[in-house]
Amino acid sequence: MISIYKHALRMAAALVCLLSVNNAEAQTYCNPSFSFGCTSSDYIQSFSTTGGINNISNPNTGCAVSSGISSYMSMKVTANPGQTVNYSATNTPSFGEYYTIFVDWNQNGVLNDAGEQMTSFTYISGGGVFSGSFTVPLTATPGMTRMRVMCVYATSSFTPCGTYSFGEIEDYGFEVMSPCPTKPTALLPTGISSMGATLNWTPVTGALKYDYVVDTITAGGVWLPIASTTATTATVSGLKPGTSHYMRVRSYCAATSFSQWDTIRFTTLPPCVVPKGFLASNVDSNSANIQWDTATNVTAWQYIVDTNRSAPLLSNPGIKTVTNRYHKVTGLNEGRWQYVHIRSKCVMNDSSGWSLDSFYTPVPCRKPQLMLSNLYSNSAVAGWPAVNTAYEYEYFLGTSTTPPSLGTPIKFSYLQVAALQPKTTYDLFVRCKCRDNNVYSTSDWSILEFVTNPPLGINNINNDAVSMSLYPNPAKEILNVEISGRYSNNAVVYITDVAGKVMSVANITGSKMAIDVKSLTAGVYFVKFADGENTSMMRFTKM
């Protein structure tokens, strides 16, 4: 009986509702008139929001006020213009209701101006959920306003302030945040290099962070990628050298609230270029002078000289940092290619790649080690071990100890001089002319002083001056020495190495003698005869 009565009342209320006058703008924040309110189980069970800066959670309120006019203005949603808010309302479990939401965006006290009904009229069955989302208009007036969540029984279209039979409203606060603070100002790029810069700007009160972009686009469009920072400075890299760039910064207030961009133009420095114009000069066997060209934007250079062709690691301790382009490098190895790597250091610690150049340090042109043999009263033979890299020699024979300016060129490493004067002191000068990897050089003079033998007397008419013969040559264990000619009783024979070091000495007791050479290392040696007046020298090889 009660259920039939309530159904009759609902039908009558629906008829009254259709005949009622729309009272939408009767007064500021007017309330609807419910004949029975929520007393017959026509109510909003729960309501909540998400997505706002602050959100509402109001569960299981049921029919809190029998008139159906429930105010929860102490609860509010906070959001920025353009921000999306999600809502969810759980309907009474007893009856189906029609739902909608109104928000007074312009704060004029009227809830259904154009654009203020945020959802369509939606029928929700008993126990169902009314949910969805809406976006805060960009034109919404900042400040606190009212949001009305409304359900009406058996009425598919209604206003915030009409007359109805059954239903409920729940009014909540809705705080629209102020538009994002003003854009950053006093933009200042500092530390500009060829590929980077540091951006600076003044802080803006209320900004949560700042978005910034640096690109080469002149104007308009969306600039990507956008970077963010909570500081008022940012360092950017990877820019184009010698190019105009645009620095753009804006204040960030929330996910959908930003200031306008502020923009300033700056130009990056020219690129930090690889050094050019390398030159090596005054190259000798262990040193050289090196230099290279200067360039704009360069504050220093780094270089290394070694025998490694590959570019050096930055941790290499041999790398030198210098501010001038002229250097003498020493301590190099002879007969090697020297590789020179150089790079520029530019403003703000920019650096170029490594250049690669090289030069050759020649083997030094060493003077010959002179030795004399077959010395007679009017002739002599001089010789010397061949010098590495020597392509010819020069000699000069005279009686002065002053080195000559020029000599006579010869190709061989021995020299026979004749037409000498007996018992005369001579000075033989010999030097090398060298070529190593097309580097030409000349050694110092080597000097050999010797005195020719006396002339032969009447008693020596039928005998030549002292001479030697050696056999076997090469010798392995025993070297036989045979001496001919006249010599005094104090004559000796001694063996020397090529440097003149005496290896053994033996007195002459006859014209033939055998010398034990087993202890000598393999190589070239000299046997020298001397008796005070005569000398003679021959070379032999120890096997």
Protein described:
The structure is a single chain. The chain is built from one helix and 40 strands. 3% of the residues lie in helices and 45% in strands. By secondary structure, the protein is mostly beta strands. Strands 1, 4, 6, 7, 9 and 10 form a six-stranded mixed beta sheet that branches. The protein has five domains: 2-176, Sandwich (Immunoglobulin-like); 188-267, Immunoglobulin-like (Sandwich); 279-361, Immunoglobulins (Immunoglobulin-like), CATH 2.60.40.10; 371-451, Immunoglobulin-like (Sandwich), CATH 2.60.40; 463-542, Immunoglobulin-like, CATH 2.60.40. It is rod-shaped and about 165 Å long. A hairpin with a 6-residue loop joins strand 11 and strand 12 (197-200).
Find the CATH topology of the largest domain.
Immunoglobulin-like
- Computed structural class: mainly beta
Domain count: the total is: 5
The tally of helices reads: 1
The CATH class designation of the largest domain is Mainly Beta
- The termini sit apart by 141 Å
Query: Helicity level, as a percent range?
Result: under 10%
The number of strands is 40
Sequence stretches where pLDDT stays below 50 over 5 or more residues: 1-27, 457-464
Overall mean pLDDT stands at 86
Question: Using only CA atoms, what is the Rg?
Answer: 56 Å
Largest sheet features: 6 strands, mixed
Strand content: over 45%
CATH architecture of the largest domain: Sandwich
The CATH homologous superfamily of the largest domain: Macroglobulin (MG2) domain
What overall geometry do the principal axes of the alpha carbons give?
A: rod-shaped
